[in-house]
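Reopening this one. Same input as before:
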Amino acid sequence: MGFASTYPGTPSSEIGNILEVISSDAGMYFEFSNNEKVALEVSAAAAVSGVRSFAFMKHVGLNVAADPLMTLAYSGVNGGMLVLTADDPSAHSSQNEQDNRYYASLGLLPMVEPSTPAEAKDMVAEAYAISEELQLPVLFRTTTRVNHARGVVDFKDRQTPVTKGHFEKDVVRFVNIPAYARVNRNVLLEKNKRALDLSEESPLNYTVGEGEVGVITSGVSFTYVSEYISGAEILKLGFTSPLPEKKIAEFVKSKKHVVVVEELDPYLEDSVLRICAQYGISVPVYGKRSGHLPRAGEYSPDTLTGLSGLLDVKTFQDPNPRCDIRLPSRPPTLCAGCPHRGMFAAVKKAVGKRDVVYCSDIGCYTLGVQPPFNAADFIICMGGGAGAAGGFSKATDQLPIAFMGDSTFFHSGVSPLINALFNNHRIIMVILDNRTTAMTGHQPNPGTGRDHGGITTDALDIESLVRGVGAKFVRTLNPYDVKGSTEAFKEAIEYDGVAVVISKCPCPLELKKRKVLVPAMCEVDPEKCIGCGICLKTIACPALSKRDDLCVIDPTQCIGCGMCANVCPKKAIEVKK
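Same output, byte for byte:
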C-alpha cells in the first residue's frame, strides 16, 4: 500500500502506532486523521487516483465513516482500498459490541475475515486483489482476539509502494447526484454479482476435516472450532461478503446437521438458513437461533460446551487448581496525578447542590463516573456529550456540563460547540486537554502537532479555535490548582450562554514516556495532618490512603503533582522536588 490513514481506537490502535514508526522507511504515506470520516475520505481520494490505500478504525469508528463509505461503493476505486473495522466482542474497550459485518451487506461491499495474525497478514494481498478486480473498497473485518494475538508470519520480498497517482475525471462515476447515483447503483449490483463468483472460487473459503456433521465458521471462531471440536467437517469462510451460496449449499446438503459458530450476531447463520430455504435443503441448522450459542460476548473454549449434544467437543483440564479465595475487584481508575482528577474536583466543588446533568464522552475521563466524582450521567458516543448538553439545556431546567478530551474536541466537538452558539444553548463545555490522545496509547492529534513519519506540523491552539468560532466566555485553567479552578468554574456557572473551560495539563504518563517528568514527591507532615480525609474525598488519588487515622502517600505511585496539597485545609502536605 502507498497510503494509510486512521483515527486511533482500540482494538485497532496498534496498527497506527506501528505505521507511525515505519512509514517513512517503508516509503508510504501515513496520517492520523482528526476523525474516522476524514480518514476514510483521504484514503478514498488516494484510491480513486490509483494508489493502494488503507483506512482503519475500531468498530464504532465505522459509524462515523459510514456516510462516505456508502457512496464510495457507488463510485468505486481504481487502486485497491481496504477498510479495516476492528470489532470488539464483549466490549473490552468500547461502549457497545456491534457487529460490523452488516456494513458489507448494507453497502454491497466485499468483505474478508482473518482468523489468525498470519492469516491477517496474508489476506491483505488477497483483499487488494479482490478490490482491484472489482474496483470496490473491501471491508477487512477483524476482532479483538485477532488484533491482540501474536503469531508466526512468513514475509515475502517487499515491493516498493506506489505513493503518487493521477485522478482521471469521470463526472458520472464520481459525482453522485441523484441522476448519476441511480446509474451507479446498477453498476454496483453488477459488481456484487461478480463478487459472488469470486467468493465461490476464492481460496479463502475452504473445508478441513471430515464427518457427517458440518460446522460453518469464520474469523477467530474458526480457531476455537479447530482446536476443540473433532469428528466434523469444517467449512472455513474467509471471504464472507458476498457468501459463497453454492459452496454452502453443497456443504450443508451432505450433512446430518450443521452448526454455525460465530461471535456476536447470527450473520452467517441467518444466511445459511436462507440458503437452505432457497435451495430446498431440509438439513437442521443449529447455532444462536436454536439457543445453543450465545449472541452476546466473545467466545472461549467454555462457550463450545453448549454444543456437546451436537458435536464432539474436547474436554480439557484446568492446569491450575481452582482457588476459592475471592480477591477484591480492581476497577479501572484515573492514574495517580491525572489532571482530570483536579478538574472533576473543582467542578464538583463549584457546582455544590445545583441540579446539573454531567454529559461525558469517550476517553480516560469517562472514568469520572466513579466515586467520589460521579461526574457522568449521560454518554453515547464521541462528541455526543456536547451535542446532548444542548438538548438538555432546552428540554430541562437543569444546567448541562459536557466533558470531552482534546482529541475528541477535534474529532467531533467543534460542531456541537458551533451548534450551541448558533442556537443560544446555555451549556458549559469542559475541554480536558491533556496534550495527547491518551486512552488509545498517546497518539498525536491536531492540538499536539506532528513531528514523525515525515510530517512536521504546528499544534492548533484550542483556545484560539474556540474564540474563533464565536465563544465569548473562555477560560484556560491549570487543573492542579484545584482552588483556582473552582473559583473560575463558579464564573462559568453564572454565565448566561455557552461557557468553555479548557483544563490544560499534560498527561503524566506521556511525560514519563518522553522522560520529561520533573521528579517530585508529596509528603504528609504527621504533626499537621488531622486525618480529615479531604484530600482523599476530593482528589481520590490512588497514591493516597489512611493509616492510623492519618493520611499517607505511597511514594511508589505519587508523581508530586500537588493536587492533594492544594486542597489540604491544614497545609499538611508538601511537594518536594
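So the earlier flakiness isn't reproducible anymore. For the record, The domain at 3-199 is CATH 3.40.50.970 (Rossmann fold).
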